[in-house]
Amino acid sequence: MTTTTTITPSRAGQARGGADRTHDRWWAPWLFLAPALLIVAVFVLFPFVNTLALSVTDATLLKPGQFIGVDNFVRLAGDERFRTAMVNSMLYVVCVVPVMIAAPLALAALVNGTTRILGFFRTAYYLPVVMSSVIVGLIWTNLLDTRGLINQLLGWLGVINEPIGFLSDRWLTLISAMVVTVWTGLGYYMVIYLAAMANIDRSLYEAAAMDGAGPFRQFRHVTVPGVRATSALIGLFSSVSAFRVFGEVYVLTGGTGGTGGQNITVTMLIQQEGTGLQAQTGYAGAISMVMFVLLGGLLAAQLWFQNRGGDK
Amino acid sequence: MFRQPARFVLPVVAALALGACGVGGSGSDDTTATVSGEIKGEITFQTWNLKGGYEEYFTGLVTAFQTANPGTTVTWIDQPPEGYQDKLSADAAAGSLPDVVDIGPEAAFTLAGAGMLLDLSKTDPDAAKDYLPKAWDANHFPSLGGTYAYPWYLNTGPSFFNTALLDKCGVDKAALPTTFDALFTAGQTMASKCKSGETMVGRLPAIETFGAYGVPLMNAEGTTFTFNDAKGVELVTRYKQLFEAGGLTEATLNELQTGEVDAFKAGQVGWLPGSSYTLKDLKSTAPKIAETVAISPQITNDKPNMYIESLAVNAKSKNTATAVAFAKFATNRENQLGFSSKAAIFPSAAGALEDAYFTTDDGTPEAKLRVESAKAVSEAIVYWPAAFSSKSVDFMREQIALAVLGKKDVQAALDESVKYAQDNLPK
């Protein structure tokens, strides 16, 4: 008679003395995690803790400073430049995020297909994504400057007598920066939407078509609900990006924060206060912490709304 | 270093973290010890944007020093000038400041305040006689009680006017403005005659403009800023009136020096406060404008303004004696004259301006400009207070822009600028 014994993996391990070996190798997962943990610790955790510690001191770049409690935060409350920066950053979120959710979806719907011409447009729309924000900013600076192409063109057409201050008027500068941000981000989010749209069941479109729905109604009643989760994700990503906007405004204003500093954003303010020989690292740390809390709150609120929507 | 205002982008959190990592002034007062010891060993010598045009001169300078002082090695480091204060701050925070640094007074003031530069008034007081007194004094900071750099080269310059634009806009090119009154009058004339964006003035007043206008910038002790007095308010009010009349564009309100130069080269601005380098630059980059340019004395209600670049010695250098010897060698009369003959700058060494190179006009426009500028240097002063930091410069420009736009009272804008500058003085 032949006897068959099934050995489960754990038993197999025990049979080879594996239990002890597993116990001996408790450090193995940590070894695999170590490189990533090290990077996170050095470039995320340490700077964060250090910034937190700095925010309650009057440290400058060249002097370590003393503990001053919440004085930096009190100073922030009365800082006109901080108020301006907050207004600009929040306006950026309010104006850019809805466009970043809607426009790439419309674009994705238009270029969703397999023909060569659509492939060309997909590539063209994606091109700004691979360009650095500084180069994009320089291109747009040359377009929007008082001596730039757009003003020259408008002057040549007789539309204007004097150049339009796209980069000197407070609101025009902010709007110009938003346009650059949207132009740069469209292609990126369009690709994400295209991936999401590929997962929508084709039979839903066929059913809608049989019910007499045209392209617009198919888009409204099939595509939009089908990518709702993706839209929420893009809302999260673009909110964080918009609040942290730096490169576009920095380059368009020549690093000055605009006329009278009226276009400064929170990130630019941190850069201005936290760098240079006269850097006030303590104060810059306090601004960073406020930004961290606000961004955290913004993300939490969006996640809460998203989850509530999902539950329903 | 040729001044090119610029900013330097750093990842915010990393910059904060790295900055904080490097924080740690020693607090020890070793900047005043008398320098002694052998002239031997290695030192580093930092300059900005000089390798491109003057590599041969500096290589020769280093070789000459090493030959005269066997056993020494000078490593010359030259970097682009953009964001030079950020680079200095990174070095200072990391404790790796070069032994000899090419530096302006405002950066020297901050580093000296943190105990990072050698106090020459204690370690080498006799050196004062080797330099023009006003050049030596430019690195004397009363509030810190010391002198922190050897004067190197000076620069000043006349006014450059675009005569074609003056003609077009009804300004008499035979009577070019030499005072602020004449400048603002010409600016108003241009505003009334030219309606297509051309203006006489291309930038808001900087701190040195206040000085040239006759505004007292600081008290005698160098401890309190005073440019928010009635004279300062008067100056800004005149810019505001010019703006309201259309004699300043909105773009002008945010221009840095480079933007002003670009606007002049584009034929949109009538007046450019230049340097001895400007004519050469215009000829090579804007030849059509250069053909129309007329040169007249610097606009000032007092003495002309000048800028100074100096060589400071790291107080924590491992070879202080060698660093001091090299800084003095590079700034001695002979070497300053050698450098001045290659670059459009002026020497700060005592008696060097009396050299025939600066007093003889051979009839060329360059020589005429050089001789006239050298005359101006001999009477010019450094208006920019060393204690007025680059951050204060930016803040003041913003405040004045708001005042000119009518979004803030002129007096309030200057009061806030003074307060900001005062708050940023080293504690």
Shape by Cα distribution of chain B: globular
Largest sheet of chain B: 6 strands, mixed
Structural class of chain A: mainly alpha
Q: How helix-rich are the residues of chain A, as a percent range?
A: over 70%
**Beginning-to-end CA distance, first to last residue of chain B:** 28 Å
Share of helix of chain B, binned = 40-55%
Sequence of strands across the biggest β-sheet of chain B: 2-1-3-10-6-11
CATH superfamily of chain A: MetI-like
Summarize the helix and strand pattern of chain A as letters.
Answer: HHHHHHHHHHHHHHH
The CA-CA distance between the termini of chain A, in Å, is 62 Å
CATH homologous superfamily identity of the largest domain in chain B: Periplasmic binding protein-like II
In CATH terms, what is the architecture of chain A? Orthogonal Bundle
Unreliable parts of chain A: 1-7, 9-13
Q: Per the principal axes of the C-alpha atoms, what is the gross shape of chain A?
A: globular
Write up what this structure looks like.
The complex is a heterodimer of chains A (312) and B (427). Chain A has 312 residues and is mainly α. Chain A has helices at 9-15, 18-24, 28-54, 71-77, 80-111, 116-126, 133-144, 149-156, 170-198, 202-210, 215-226, 228-243, 247-252, 266-274, 281-311. Chain A has a single domain (79-311), classed as MetI-like fold (Orthogonal Bundle), CATH 1.10.3720.10. Chain A contains 15 helices and no strands. Chain B is an alpha+beta fold. Chain B has 19 helices and eleven strands. Chain B has helices at residues 12-22, 51-68, 84-94, 105-113, 120-123, 133-138, 163-168, 180-193, 207-213, 230-244, 257-265, 278-285, 287-292, 320-330, 333-340, 356-359, 365-379, 390-405, 410-423, and strands spanning 41-48, 72-79, 100-103, 140-141, 146-147, 150-155, 159-162, 271-273, 293-296, 307-313, 346-347. The two termini of chain B are 28 Å apart. The model of chain B is unreliable at 1-30 (pLDDT under 50). Classes of the chains: A mainly alpha (312), B alpha+beta (427). Chains A and B meet through helix 3, helix 14 and helix 15 of A and helix 1, helix 3, helix 4 and helix 18 of B.
